[in-house]
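Quarterly update from the structural biology core.
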Amino acid sequence: MGFVITVYQHLSPLPTCLLVAVFLLLESSGIPIINTTLLLFTGALAALGRVNLAWLMVVAIGGSTLGACLAYILGRYYGEALLLRLARLLRIDERKVLLAKRGFLRAGGQMIFISRMVPYIRPFACFPAGISSMSFLRFLLAAFSGSVIWCVTMLIVGWELGPRWEIALQLIQAYTLPALCGLLLLAVVYVFVQRKINRYVKMRLGEVEAQAKEEELIEV
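Predicted structure, tokenized:
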């Protein structure tokens, strides 16, 4: 990314915008390019008058959304076969894969929206939407909304900080991974507790039903 920044410093506004669009498209379609540095830096360039901030927002949002749509299409047409093959290889019951797909459909819109604003997850989050055959319009709305918030926020932060844009980058790099690990731990605890509660409730219901049958037999 350091080489890219050096190149950007010598580019005119049009190539700068085009490269932002290309990098965001590639990153959103599954290529793990961290776009945070690029957005903050180009926002700082806009503050220096090197490029128009509004155009940067347009091309960044457009590239990010198009890349997300490309990932959706790849997942829709090729992802399920690959996923089932991987499940068989790992000896995972295909019924569990189907249940996971149904679960994603229930909360997929919120997951896509949030993932568009989370570094490290952004490049890969749109494939499951295609694999689960989520409604494309629903997917597009979620992906576009999340992309707008992420791109505009990063560009404005870069704009406001100007030459000090690396301060924001350092903070993001320092706290993103610990925050993600914390959220993952909370998710694991939530699933574990929920399963325990469900098992307890089913056990209690079974006991109540058995007791009711015994009382009916006694009355007869």
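The chain has a mean pLDDT of 78.
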